[in-house]
Design a protein that fits this description.
With about 260 residues, this protein is α+β, with helices and mostly antiparallel strands. The protein contains 6 helices and 14 strands. It has 2 domains: about 5-210, 2-Layer Sandwich (BirA Bifunctional Protein, domain 2); about 215-260, SH3 type barrels, CATH 2.30.30.
Length: about 260
């Protein structure tokens, strides 16, 4: 029997959640999100985290490929079962959680580029992919996280050397991936629980860490280009822009790409 969650019992369920209480580690897999989706068929796997040392078919938004050299990154997916949590809100929640877990690296502060990129000094260091599916018990969510940890510049493909970075590059020394992973998982657990109760604090922290807020932004929405000043974010409707031609418009993440 599928029990429809009310705001009260949703809050109670999330208060008891402990993301990472169970962990599965693969040496190599096609995609941790795909593996997590299979585990999500059983609601008892709620909170399970799947790690991989290497992915042969890791992906980002819109099917783009996620490059990660073996052993150089943190690659994991979290299984969330049977909660009615809008994917858009879960994406914002995950971005804030990862950003706060990374904090300051070298001289750079981790910043959010909406909707799912985390940057250091203007270069991408982490990405998030939230996917949702319907199962027999209700809706299941998968949060996929990839963090560039111990790569050097020469480890990236030529086309990424100007746009990607790693924790090692920014702080000029190798990092302990286990320690970073623990911080991210703890931060995810904290923000998912907190956002279930109220999302005002989440939005406040998104604004604090956003690299777009108050900036002139260009977005491509369904093939059309729009320019304007970023006013903020709506948890479900997306990025809010004061358009250069006048008026205010919201752009949902599913159909929008930020070019700057």
């Amino acid at each position: 029997m599928v029990v429809k969650l009310t705001p009260d019992n949703l809050k109670e369920k999330l208060r008891c959640r402990r993301i990472g209480s169970e962990i599965v580690v693969f040496d190599s897999t096609a995609s941790t999100n795909d593996v997590a989706a299979e585990y999500a068929r059983n609601k008892d796997n709620d909170g399970l985290v799947i790690f991989a040392e290497h992915q042969t078919a890791g992906r980002g938004r819109s099917g783009s490929r996620w490059f990660a050299s073996k052993g150089g990154s943190i690659l994991f997916s979290v299984v969330l079962c049977g909660i009615e949590f809008p994917p858009e809100l879960l994406s914002l929640c995950s971005a804030v959680a990862v950003t706060e877990a990374l904090g300051t690296v070298g001289r750079q502060q981790a910043r959010i580029k909406w909707p799912n990129d985390i940057l250091l000094g203007g270069k991408k260091v982490a990405g998030i992919l939230v996917e949702s599916r319907e199962y027999g018990y209700g809706q299941g969510h998968i949060i996929g996280v990839g963090v560039n940890c111990n790569q050097l510049i020469e480890d990236f493909p030529q086309q990424l050397t100007q746009t990607a970075t790693s924790l090692r590059i920014e702080q000029n020394r190798k990092v302990d991936r286990i320690s970073v992973s623990r911080r991210i998982i703890s931060s995810l657990d904290h923000w998912i629980c907190r956002t279930a109760e109220e999302n005002e604090k989440l939005l406040e922290n998104w604004k604090k860490h956003s690299m777009l807020l108050g900036e002139r932004v260009t977005v491509v929405y369904n093939g059309r280009k729009f320019c304007g000043n970023c006013l903020g974010i709506d948890p479900q409707k997306g990025l809010i822009l004061q358009l250069e031609g006048g008026g205010i418009r919201m752009f949902d993440a599913g159909h929008t790409t930020v070019t700057r």
